[in-house]
Amino acid sequence: MKIIVDAMGGDHAPQAPVMGAIQANREYGVNVVLVGIGEVILETLEKNGIKDLPAGVEIVHASQVVEMEDNPARAFRDKKDSSLTVGLTMLKNGEGDAFVSAGSTGALLSGATLVVKRIKGIRRAAMAPVVPSGSGGTVLIDCGANAECPPEYLLQFAYMGSYYAEHVLGRPSPKVGLLNIGVEPSKGTSLQTTVYPMLEEAGKAGRINFVGNIEAREAVEGAVDVLVSDGYSGNIFLKTMEGTGLFLAHNLKAMFKKNLITKLAAVLVSGGLKEFKKLMDAGEVGGTALLGISKPVIKAHGSSDDYAIKNAIRQARDYINADIISSIEANVDLMRLDGSTLKPKE
Amino acid sequence: MKIIVDAMGGDHAPQAPVMGAIQANREYGVNVVLVGIGEVILETLEKNGIKDLPAGVEIVHASQVVEMEDNPARAFRDKKDSSLTVGLTMLKNGEGDAFVSAGSTGALLSGATLVVKRIKGIRRAAMAPVVPSGSGGTVLIDCGANAECPPEYLLQFAYMGSYYAEHVLGRPSPKVGLLNIGVEPSKGTSLQTTVYPMLEEAGKAGRINFVGNIEAREAVEGAVDVLVSDGYSGNIFLKTMEGTGLFLAHNLKAMFKKNLITKLAAVLVSGGLKEFKKLMDAGEVGGTALLGISKPVIKAHGSSDDYAIKNAIRQARDYINADIISSIEANVDLMRLDGSTLKPKE
Questions:
Q1: How many whole angstroms separate alpha carbon B259 and alpha carbon B273?
Q2: Measured between CB atoms, does A256 come within 8 Å of chain B?
Q3: ipTM score for this prediction
Q4: Is B282 part of the contact surface with chain A (CB cutoff 8 Å)?
């Protein structure tokens, strides 16, 4: 197994991706390919006391870097020798089994879609982060790749999210819910009322474990393993969660900083407080899978440190091992509307 | 000023609405009319040691009660002698200046729309709660009354929310933002991209203080005074906030209950912790105004105790005093699309 890592992507590049990859190689025994400006990667390794390239670590030179200012839709084409485009092209050509990047989300999504391509029959790739919830994490699909979705997209998201939860996260018969504003099948916009019977049918046929509409509040409590949503609403859900966590963290900090007595209290619960803060910080657990792409692509958070990159690489490993892309390919006909008139638009 | 109170609505009726109204009468000097089953109201007063009706408190008998099982769209018609229908009819006939109820949201919304009616030219009434945020509370409009909205609704929500924030909450030149998944005008679904230039135009003309698209995370931080949204997304925002608060409260509790030392810490911060918990509990601050109805109607939270009802009555008083309904009526032509072809459907 060989995992291609974008050495130039993210707020803490090259340090975080380079050293995250080194740690993943050490810890998980996976082969890694660092793609980026050769001398910069070598410098980073040296700075971290690594003089000889460890076994299973390769470097592939790419002279350009995709910046946040670049047009996300065109970056992979405008910068053909960027770590992004070179890495994705290697993935496409089978010179690696997965691609991990902490760079621009939009550029990665466009690049993955147009270089690596979608699975045949899948209308759109979706961003599927694992968001913290009462059940230890819920797959949210989609969280913003597709603002506006016809029903067929959501049907496909449900299947892809279910396969991911089952085979990558190890949840047997994952509960799939449709994000909605009430539990009755009549609730929501025409999108939800149209998708509901499709998911219900898939559930009755035993293809997914559809448990019905789920309100946002119950979703946070962990009522489902997979939360199906259009990208606009999914993004509102994800960002509201993040914002509320930060807002409450801020107020909690103020509470503990009030006076000497409260500061003492903070010391007494310092261990638990650390865990609690992590819970509030975490908009997402690990990296976000781009489901629907024909090979595994993982978007690590832009602010990833080396530990986070290492985890994203582990996630890529699990994604490869689970081989859910084959499952999606084998079942893609079930995810299409009869006599589908919805042609994918590029 | 006379405020009509639904004595039978809410989880803690009749105790909460009856005693909340009595307290509001005492504290704010407003006249209140308790509408509900006469003997039940009298019993409740007696149980609380009130033998003679205080000055400024009236009782109006209504023999029926709208239950949660009743069809929300038809309840006001099916139960013509319910506290809901009698109270709303009194409001319509000018026998009171506002109506406050903690009963069924759907029944109240339908009843208010069809008995009291909307302001002429306003397409839909919206639910506008004040949600906790970094700036001390943000008016969210709409939070679920209208799952699916054409652009004109959102234009009207923006104006109504702005008037409410300015005149009822006392925010000078309130910042109005459009809930979205990015700040660029091109972001979101076709709804947001269509509404953006309309709000921009209203902003440029100095009619509202439109500050652009607002992501959910910044909205929670308190970036705006008014957050404009379709009801579906607004509900996702509100319920995610509530859910995240409850989820974190649960984890915080577990942290403090771990052992004797952490329990001591809890005692040391008990004062602040109480405030903090309130912050996490509060999905909404006070009652929710039904904006767009031709007279002030306030929905108090179903779980309201007497203190919450008292506050909802104070809010109704402020709503009446602010007289924003006149402002909406005077400016309603600015809130309509040119040559509007959108006919309101009942």
A1: 18
A2: yes
A3: 0.91
A4: no
